[in-house]
Amino acid sequence: MDPNPSAQDVHRCDLCETAIVHSYCDFCHVNLCKPCILDHILDGYDKHKIVPFQERRSTLIYPKCGTHPNKSCELQCKDCYICVCSSCMASDQHKGHSFAEVSEVYMTKKVIIHQDSEELKIRISPSYEKIARDLENQLANLDGGYEKLATTISKQGEQWHREIDIVINKTKTEIYEIKGKHKDILQKHLREVKQVQSLIKQTLLALNEIEKSTEVSSTIQYTSKIREFSKPPLKVQISLPNFISKPISREKLYSLFGQVTPLSTATEENDLSLNMLNQPYTSVRELLDEPELVATIQTGYTDLRSVICLNEDKILTCTWTNNVKCFNIKGSLLQTIRTKSGENTKDIAVDCDGDVLYSEGVTRSVNKTRIGQTEELIRLQGWNPNQMCVTSTGDLLVTMYSDNYTQSKVVRYSGSTEKQTIQFDGKGKPLYSGNGIIKYITENRNHDICVADLTAGAVVVVNQDGKLRWRYTGHPSVTKNGPFQPFGITTDSQSRILTADHNNHCINILDQNGQFLRCIDNCDVKYPFGICVDNYDNLFVCEFFSGNVKKIQYLK
């Protein structure tokens, strides 16, 4: 390739269209030569941002303040979640609020946009291309497959014709054999009759000679044979055989001939499951040296137990009451979902369709709410539901305990159908402590099932088949205040496991094999309970007594 650029490769001024470009207006996005710069900025110098052409698109264009039109909004109010100018910052409306540089928010979003772009290019788009190619191949092979099926049916038909011809010929052979026997019987009787006829004829000739003769002796010796001939032979009447045809049942023929199986449409998860589509591109992300408290959301609850991230701006919370509340990141209440029975909730989850699930102890049920309508999904007998989570394949995992508080187990459901029970290890010993104490549960990206067993003081991890992989009972560096008390549990995009240590006011971070990595103990978290992470690995922690949800950034 010629290293020297051609005339077409040289950037020209957008105003005069002839001179070679020298500068760039980052506000108007136009190329400028030196002579044209002055003409371009005559309508308002402050409005334009002239930079060297090599540094084009490097200047941030801030939004204008709606309250103070002459100022730009270079700050974002963390409490109100809006962009503000310096004058707005000093106003009573934002008194006592915290602020972030818009440029920092901009760069953070740029990183997210880049991650989304990479995810679309590297993972999602190729996956859809693969799915499309597979469907196109199925369509291309469709005619051939059905032709093979038709050929198989034709061969079966030919075989049937051969078998029918064999049956017909065998039946005809039976007829010919019967005909031969019939003929033999008639011929035998005919010979007997003809033999008698011959004797009668001889007798007539003899009688005729005697009648003409005058010899006394032959006449006197004559013995009458009329009596003998007067008894005729038995009349033989043989009926022809009949062919008794059986009625043809088309249904029986169809069932005997063979059966075409109905069209079977099976759906299975592609490499890209629905939950994976909702997760950002999982490039390697390291832990921050110092996790940062990003926001504090005041829910007004007491005894706050569970939190679920609906998206980067909304969370779902519940406590031991008969309602589930949805808040935005600023702490504004957006929606309240009341239980249909009026009984208190035990835990909450959100399925792949975005429907809210909640468990109730009194009714022993798991319920689903969709567009204001609530239906009972599961009702237990002899067991009580506790905590739950939705898996990457859309199944529901529920921890539960027996009515006599002596047994605990994990049950996997597909819809309302029980698919799997996890209760004992390979030696027949219980995996989980037998009681009604909370046992939060989550699924890791490798499909391991992770349970925070509070009474046992352990995180219990089994694989997707229910086989025990490992237990974690705390790390000496973080159990100085008291024994390890795992409450909430969640996993992130790196398959790390995070669990809330209620007693030691911190969050333990483990790798997928149970190795302790570090703890989060610098964000003033008090009595952590339920926890979750959003699609961008921001951690949300419920504080049990204060009712606050704290948003923490712990990854780079």
General description of the model:
The protein contains 8 helices and 30 strands. It is an alpha+beta fold. It has a 4-stranded antiparallel β-sheet, with no helix packed on it. A 4-stranded antiparallel β-sheet has the order 8-9-10-11, with no helix packed on it. A hairpin with a 5-residue loop joins strand 22 (458-462) and strand 23. Helix content is 26%, strand content 30%.
Characteristic key phrases:
single chain, 556 residues, alpha+beta, four-stranded antiparallel beta sheet, 8 helices, 30% strand, disordered N terminus
Q: Low-confidence runs (pLDDT<50, min 5 residues)?
A: 1-7, 273-281
Q: In percent, how much strand structure appears in the residues?
A: 25-35%
Please compute the radius of gyration using only Cα atoms: 47 Å
Instruction: Give the tally of β-strands.
Output: 30
| Helix residue percentage | 25-40%
Described by the principal axes of the CA atoms, the overall outline is: elongated
Global mean pLDDT: 87
Helix-strand category? alpha+beta
Largest pleated sheet: 4 strands, antiparallel
